Amino acid sequence: MSAQNTEAKLKQMLKGEKIQLWNPPFSDESGDAGPQHMEELAERYAPLLRLPVTEVGGALELIRQQAVKRGKERQRFRETSVATLELLLPRDNRKETRTKSYLETRLDARVQELVDRIGEDFGLKYIKLILNGRTLCVDQPLDQQGVKNHSKVMVLKVSDAEWKLQLSEEEEKEKNQKESLQRTQKGFQILSERDGSEDSSPFLEIADQRGNPLTIPPQEKKALILAMGFHEKGRSLMKKKQFDLALCHLLQADQQFSRCGSALLASVDNFAVLQLDVVWCYRALEALSCLEDGRSRLQRAEDCFLRCYGERQQRLLMIKGNTGREEVLFLRLHLLQSLLSYVEGNDAQARHQLSKVEALYTRLCLDSEKMAQLMSLGFTEREARLGLRACEGDLQEAAIHIGNQRQEREELKQRERKRRSRRMEAISSLTELGYSRRDAARALQHADGDVDVAYGILLDSGGSAQATGSHSEGSVEQLLYLGFQRDVSEAALRLTGGDVQLATQLLLDQQGVLSPELLSESPSSEEPSTSTGDVSTEDSELVNEALEDIARHEEDYLDLNLEEESELIATMKTYLSPAHSV
Question: 221 with 300, same domain?
């Protein structure tokens, strides 16, 4: 990273002075250097960089040679469509440590042709090619996989046994990754389509920062639930240090957020936190090739925080009463900004951002004795950490704050229980008139909970009340919405002559499982059960998986112990120290 930093600084200086090393007087027509002018340049730049003249001169010559070479290669690519690729060979296959290897090829050639040529030229039997951290598929053309003129391609050497094993592992990894994404999407898709008409089945609602439900158009709500679901899954994987798989889920979340309206995104901080998490994964995966994307994501995060929290976080202060807990987000934001600035060669900006980070870090590091005292009072580690940060380290204030937070959460739960109870009573009132629970729930949603208005909506919709005495699909659906499986629902309806109320009571008495004795009384007990019951079981498993990834505490994303941040701060201080520069 240090060499990249030096090279980036030199390129900025050259660009600032509009110096073109590939042109005279620094290079002649044949591409050779003008020694005197290159030496003068090195002597002028060395004090500015606080580096030895010889080191600066060597870096400048490398930049000049690269520029001359790339110019010739660009001209050849324009004239012949033959591209030049830089090969990053295995260490023991390089003639010299600093010598680079190149290969010329057309970009419409298949990767397998490249593999064969590299194997023959460098005596490598089993290899795979990596571009920007992604393995190239041997049966596809180079240009279809993002390979361009001057792309850097890493060559990895593997043994016969390793080759077969890695092929198997890659296929398995890709399969698992795809399956994980699909299961996450399906689980949250099911949750996003639930409307609360089921008595026992879980469903999701979107709430504001005070926990109050938000009224959101159905399509936008569905996209937001999927986005937040993928984000939660990604954060869960980040905690397990599975950053590659986490990044896949976070990028899916980003795609779903793009389907939400800008007004909605401006009112919640989830989108900003997602941008931070994506760049944090880039850092963990050392994906410096994603530098440009990382910079734009951090800018989006900063803009979003400004909209959500207000100038100097006054809007956040008005909503929550304090801003201490959210400061961890700004610490991570400025730390990543510092890292990207350093890699770009902008040491001054990197130091400026790092100074903000260190000030925040000092405030956010907590006294272990105060943490222990709060935990001895029966508070959890998370409550102690968030409480102390909210109250700027004041022990007494933190204890009072945590107590108030617990009381507010309990009051919110009670309000939610009462609201859901009233909702279920209203749905039951409408279902007694013969309407399905789903139709009743949807009508109530459009009527903002008013039963009379909902009844009017159902009448205006032209839907007739379903007869509960017949064994209809509507009767089965009503039992399915109560959480029972299809096969036992149909059996219960057969036993009760199609009476939904009696079938419901029977299933409740039997805890949703009919004994063989009861089933033998059913007139159609010999009929095979449908496969839909299996689908219902699978849906239940997917929903449970999805719910496992949802953080149980609404401020889990703020509960950072700052261990990873501390390590990166130490690394940045080392790189930016005068001793390191010299």
Answer: yes
